[in-house]
Design brief:
binds protoporphyrin IX containing FE, globular, mainly alpha, Globin-like, two-stranded antiparallel sheet
């Protein structure tokens, strides 16, 4: 058997399915999510928090309007199972106490999602959110088919992207950094939801620690390892203890990765990694196109950007895109 080429790293498939830190680390490496102290994505999320917090209540309202728009998702708030298609005796209402309670948790969840991701607890919580939607880790089980979770995450990403890009005062470079960082954490959350639905890796199920799921079921909403991590501002802003790496003792209890590297080594290798396409845009014409992306409105111009709404401005009707007149003028033209 040939040895691995110099720049190729080994990834152990079993570990991807049995160790949360290893899985998260693989995803972070692939997505080039920089997780170390002062790393771009972590800084972007922490710095962007104050802007995102302002739009979270609006996004939560939009998500629940969406979920209550179709019977198949609205039912889940009565049946707790999207596979059951019988209608409830009474449909939940957006103003009802149950949805108000759920909205509060989604607000807290989105605040957590946009907070410091450098502790393993952060990814454990995202994993727990995935787990709780497949009938596990809850005294009163809940099952939501993956299609609704993926769609919901896509909708949240779209709304956040639009809101951040439309922000009137943020510098373009900061907008880019926040949108990129949020996109990466949302895609890792997507994996941590999808993995509970997929049959890939089920041959490793015997290694799944059932007691941990039971322990999680015993924990109240918003708790990880006995710590309250939601709805508490101080815990979101707490010290940077454990910051250097997202890879710490998790389900597998390992402090090295499947590649046998320490978190420090991982961080160093992330720091030297470069986009394979960087440096390819060198012709004057290409540089001109790139410069156009640094456009920003002159402060004297009274440019009032539209309030971020997240409401789609384009619609496809009979295969044609309509409502283009709803779009603002293209600043790059
Ligand atoms: C982006 C996708 C979603 C996210 C991030 C999400 C997040 C959450 C969170 C954070 C909680 C509980 C908080 C906790 O225990 O810490 C929760 C509970 C719940 N979710 Fe989701 N959710 C998503 C999609 C959905 C969808 C699509 C439905 C229904 C169609 C749904 C139905 C519920 C219900 C009914 C509960 C209550 C569970 C209980 O009372 O034990 N969720 N969700």
């Amino acid at each position: 058997m040939a040895a691995l080429p110099k720049n190729m790293e080994h990834v152990d498939r079993r570990e991807l399915y049995t160790s949360l830190p290893v899985r998260v680390q693989y995803l972070q490496q692939f997505l080039e999510f920089s997780a170390g102290v002062d790393a771009d994505d972590v800084v972007a999320l922490i710095d962007g928090q104050k802007y995102i917090k302002q739009i979270i209540p609006a996004i939560v309202n939009m998500v629940y309007k969406k979920l209550l728009m179709h019977d198949i998702t609205a039912r889940v708030f009565s049946t707790r199972d999207s596979r059951r298609e019988e209608d409830p005796d009474e449909w939940v209402k957006e103003e009802g106490s149950q949805i108000r309670h759920r909205k509060m948790f989604l607000r807290w969840y989105l605040t957590k999602l946009n907070s410091d991701p450098s502790k393993m607890e952060y990814w454990q919580y995202l994993d727990k959110v995935g787990l709780m939607h497949v009938g596990k880790g809850r005294k009163n089980p809940l099952h939501v088919d993956y299609i609704f979770l993926g769609a919901c995450l896509g909708y949240i990403q779209d709304a956040m992207t639009e809101a951040i890009l439309s922000h009137p005062r943020l510098e373009l470079l900061q907008k880019i950094a926040i949108v990129k960082a949020i996109g990466k954490v949302i895609w890792i959350q997507n994996d941590l939801m999808a993995k509970w639905h997929l049959i890939d890796g089920q041959e490793f199920d015997d290694e799944f620690v059932e007691e941990e799921v039971q322990a999680e079921a015993a924990e109240p909403e918003g708790y990880i390892n006995g710590h309250r991590i939601l709805g508490n501002q101080r815990s979101d802003d707490s010290s940077s203890e454990g910051r250097p790496s997202s890879v710490s003792s998790g389900r597998s209890g390992k402090s090295t990765t499947s590649l046998g590297r320490t978190p420090e080594q991982v961080r160093q290798s992330n720091e030297v990694s470069r986009c394979p396409f960087s440096g390819m845009t060198h012709t004057p014409k290409q540089m001109e196109t790139q410069r156009a992306t640094t456009w920003r409105p002159c402060r004297e111009e009274a440019v009032v950007p539209p309030v971020p709404s997240g409401i789609p401005k384009l619609h496809l009707i009979d295969g044609r895109t309509v409502c283009k007149e709803n779009l603002g003028p293209n600043p790059f033209e």
